[in-house]
Amino acid sequence: MLSHPNEVPVADLRRLCDPLIFDFETTAEILPLDQVIGQERAVRAITFGLEMKSDGYHIIVTGPEGTGKTTITHEIAATLAKTRPTPPDWCMVNNFRDAYRPKVISVSPGQAIRFSKSINRLVSDLKIRMPKEFQSPAFHQKMAEIQERHNKTKQTHMDHLDEVAAENNLKVEKTDAGYQVIPMDGDHPHSQASFDKLPGKVQRSIERAVEKIQDAIEAMLREVGRISAVEQKEIRKQVDDLSLGVIKNRIDLVRENYAAEPEILKFLDEMQADMVEHVSLFMPRQVELEPEEAQVLPDPEETLSLNRYRINVLEDRSDLEGAPVVFEPNPTHAALFGHIDKKPLMGTLVTDFTMVQSGALLRANGGFLILEVDAILNPAQVWETLSRSLQNHTLQIEDVASDMGLGTVSLRPSPIPLNLKVILLGDYDAFQALQVYDPKFNKIFRIRADFDVEVTRTRETIYLYARFIARVCRDAGLLPFTPRGVSAVVEYGKKTIESKDKLSLRFGAITGVLKEADYWARKENADRVTETHVIKAFTEYRFRYNLYEEKIHENYVDGTIMIDVSGDVVGQVNALAVYQIDDLSFGRPTRITAETFMGRPGIINIERESRLSGRIHDKGVMILSGYLGRTFAQHYPLSLSISLTFEQSYSGIDGDSASSTELYAILSSLSDIPIHQGIAVTGSINQKGQIQSIGGINQKIEGFFDVCQSKGLTGIQGVMIPAANVKNLMLKKSVIDAVKKNQFRIWQVSTVTEGIEILTGVPAGKPNKNGKYPARTVYGQVQKKLEQYLKQSLRLKSRFGDEHKAAEK
Description:
Elements (H helix, E strand, L loop, with lengths): L39 H12 L7 E4 L6 H13 L7 E5 L9 E5 L4 H23 L2 H31 L2 E6 L2 E8 L2 E2 L2 H6 L2 H58 L4 H16 L13 H6 L3 H4 L8 E4 L9 E3 L5 H5 L1 E2 L2 E3 L2 E3 L5 E2 L2 H4 L4 E5 H4 L3 H13 L1 E2 L20 E2 L3 E6 L1 H10 L3 H4 L2 E4 L3 E3 L2 H18 L6 H14 L5 E3 L2 H17 L7 H15 L1 H11 L10 E2 L2 E10 L2 E14 L4 E4 H4 L5 H18 L8 E6 L12 H13 L3 E2 L2 E3 L2 E2 L5 E2 L4 H15 L6 E5 L10 H8 L4 E5 L2 H9 L17 H31 L1
């Protein structure tokens, strides 16, 4: 039997989950969950975005932590990826024309490693075969024939020169400095002394002959040089022909295996021409070097090496079936877009195409890339590069400017075409920041999938909860849950969402409860998890984290924080606040006092004046002025000042859930009617005097109950809440037991008048047609006090006005 019509029935204080609705002994008997609970809107949006092939349909997924958005998004993408073709492998190869601009080629999936090994075998084989070919008797014979033929031609020209010189009594000798023409005296060369004794006419004749022979020498040398050039050309042709024959023969074997790979065939043609040109790379070194020298001395042909023919496999899909799904938890610039490694060499850093590494963007190319939005916002360069890559449909692997030092040689690989879907995960604030930061954001990410935190409580969704528990038990190796254990988890899901008609979809927290309940069951050597183990998990979790809560509670018990839970006081009401410490929240009362007096019209919000209040709280206080004016200032102006404060509050206050409490304190102060201190109040108010719902209702009630219980329950204590919050009640068992025993009460109110009557035990009063309230009512007493203030104000104004006129005279 309720003592007051506004008291909330016990049945409405918590909605239990009847374990009899389950038709199993443990969750091991039911099918584990294979579908998504309550996220149809998000699932349809993600599926649409992934299947949409037009540009700009990348996806943003929003929602609080723990709603399963990462897991569900990955599962949807993975399911769709299985139906897609496997994208090609990617390789980086040398650009034989410009080593600083290596090329990227795509090959059929699973062929990159095979192709790389084929080229390695090809090079190894040529290192063995080429020296043998050039050392073969047939090749040496051809070389000897060419040299002998051209040497004979050279010798003929030299012999003719000697004959011409002999005819002129001269001799041609070859020295280190070149060819020297010597005048002869019979069989002996002229000495300088013998030459000087000759008649001048003879000397001049000899000198003319010497000049003639010197011209002949120059002509002979030119002809010999031409012959040598022809000889070298023939030798080079023989070398090239031999090289081409051997190399082409070996490369043709590779070509046969990749006849359907146009990019490979093009690269093989380019590589063949380069191998023929640099065939000396396949020849052994003339001098053996010490290991230390080999690291710093150049390879043959000016630092060229056989590494130029290596294949740098950027991405290999040999183990992939369908399209890739990549989640990159740490999307740095290098991890996302790739990077170019370097190594120190003689005081500088060097690199080549074999040191280029790919990133997550290339791994996901042809499939789906999942990223957390917070991680790509810092540094901003990551987002800028991602945005540019998605708009241009190309990936450019490059150095980050900050990573490059003095003397660094870097590369500019060819861009890689991109064809993938990017999915960003995060909360609303991060996406709003991106929309403000980048005007093109909405053109790139056109699809938004919002994850909900709750689902309507139905028999079907409760059973799906049980199947979810079965799935976690299977995947995590937990003990099965009994029906009562499942019911306890369902009730936890209702309490965390603060609704009897909803279930929480924050499965991250629920999974934690399941694992901890399993722990306590195993501690008892149980073979299944029961309701007792689930409650034990809740209790122990709270005990681990509620040290701060207990310290605060001690302040209420020992009187450090002044709270009355009995008696009656004018202008004083117990409000309720919620404290949040990480994931733990709890409620505690706080005293609000109001003082009213004559003065400048308005409400003095002490928290605001001391800069301890937030904007929402300030708005709530301003609404009080609207209600007071609407109720009491229709026939004359208000002429009073009001001072409001949260006593013993030394930190910031925000929210409007105490606005109704502040109004009750004001009405009590104006009417001089005391308020029952055993009743705590919560609820916001509008200008019409209606009580509006607030958050944290269960924590607030339980917090005040804990204080009352510590100070002693009297049977007339309780909490007055908005009627709109009754549906949110999921109170703990100790509160419900106290209500059942009439030791504690919960009232619901919809209007200020209902609330003030419960708090004072005095009727609020209704105005007559002239706007007058009955004398023996709260509002009647308020009206009487306001009329007194007005009359006193007018008398003072009149007196001060007369004094002012007298002073002027």
